[in-house]
Design brief:
By secondary structure, the protein is of the alpha/beta class. It has helices at residues 16-19, 43-52, 90-98, 121-140, 157-170, 192-201, 226-247, 249-252, 268-282, 293-300, 314-324, 353-368, and strands at residues 22-27, 103-108, 146-151, 173-178, 205-208, 258-261, 301-304, 329-330.
């Protein structure tokens, strides 16, 4: 959570965390309008976008029930003075976020146009390709601190592989992003060719929460309230972690790095404890696993920190961090969204300078090889 920032920070206000020059693993750029994509989208798909817009897996258009008090789930101070939605003005992002908080690198996470939920897989692939090019042209090439990701829809595996290969040749992307809500759980073999290419190219696989896979976002069905749906992000990530581990993906692709983004990390101990317990009881069902699930999690998975679970007792957060592993956590702010975590206040528990440096910088630098 944060206070509203409406002026540059003074030097005496910058704590150790910001002086570290942080790596922010979750920065959301936005299209000012879909016209931004015209230079990157073939005429056929430009016309398709104007005439038909999105055909999603969910039965209703614009179903994301974000609260009216935070339109576009954004901070109220994040609306650019030049107009357009939050995250659409680079100069304003630099002034409000990158410069005052000493962000050394910011990893772009694009959510526009329900990228991963398009039913028309060819249209989805065209949109993903256009947005991949737009990230470089509008953001990374204008500010080298901002790093782009290769967005692909994993339900069109052949299209995804072609886009990964195209972007890898460009050589400017630092990870491959897939949806946490595909048609099937992420551990299924139909998605393994993507994981094989990611491992071969030594690109981490980023999985950012959000979107709809055509299924209810909770195991109990469709929620009634935004506050209820927001809880489902952690459940979704936990389910996908179990799918990847139990189906044997890290066993098959031991060098592949997974980064779960915007799912928090408070749920990890209980989820992993339960997997380990069930593995001991039912290991004959999964002979392809040679080790306990917790061992795969500690070797192949990283987690961005936002939104941080904030217990009343700071020492409880400290215990949680120690169990998950300080080497497993990557700082993220979620700028410019309403539940943005300000690096000055994000960890309300004691951390040594060495631990703080790992979480705010060196862990991400190791994963993404900056």
């Amino acid at each position: 959570m944060s206070e509203v920032i409406d002026r540059p920070l003074r030097d005496d206000e910058k704590p150790a965390a910001s002086r570290l020059r942080i790596v922010d693993c979750d920065v959301h750029p936005s299209l000012r309008s879909t016209d931004d994509l015209n230079d990157f989208l073939p005429k056929r798909w430009q016309q398709h976008l104007k005439e038909y817009r999105s055909h999603l897996r969910t039965p209703y258009l614009f179903t994301t029930p974000y609260p009216r008090s935070s339109p576009l789930i954004a901070r109220r101070d994040a609306w650019p003075p030049t107009g357009g939605p939050p995250g659409s003005d680079l100069a304003f992002m630099q002034k409000q976020h990158l410069d005052p908080l000493d962000v050394e690198f910011g990893i772009l996470q694009v959510l526009d146009l329900f990228i991963f939920s398009q039913q028309n897989l060819e249209f989805g692939a065209a949109i993903q390709r256009a947005i991949n090019d737009w990230q470089l042209a509008f953001w990374s090439h204008r500010d080298p601190r901002l790093k782009a990701s290769i967005l692909v829809g994993q339900d069109g595996v052949d299209l995804a592989i072609a886009e990964i290969e195209r972007c890898a040749k460009i050589g400017e992307y630092i990870q491959i992003n897939v949806s946490p809500r595909a048609n099937e759980p992420l551990g299924r073999r139909r998605y393994w060719p993507i994981y094989e290419r990611a491992q071969a190219l030594d690109l981490p696989l980023g999985i950012h929460v959000g979107g709809y896979g055509g299924h209810a976002p909770t195991g109990g069905g469709w929620p009634s309230y935004y506050v209820e749906e927001h809880q489902s992000n952690a459940h979704t990530i936990a389910a996908q972690l179990a799918s990847l581990v139990i189906e044997g993906v890290p066993e098959r692709f031991p060098k592949l790095k997974f980064v779960f983004i915007e799912g928090g990390f408070g749920w990890i101990p209980s989820a992993v404890w339960r997997m380990d317990q069930h593995f001991e009881r039912f290991r004959s069902e999964v002979p392809h696993l040679r080790r306990k699930p917790s061992e795969y999690v500690r070797e192949s998975f990283w987690f961005t920190t936002q939104p941080i679970d904030e217990p009343d007792e700071a020492r409880h957060l400290r215990s949680l961090i120690e169990w998950v592993g300080i080497d497993r956590l990557l700082f993220s702010s979620d700028y410019p969204h309403w539940d943005f975590d300000d690096p000055r206040f994000a960890f309300k528990t004691p951390l040594t300078e060495a631990e703080r440096k790992k979480i705010f910088s060196t862990n991400a630098r190791a994963v993404y090889k900056f």
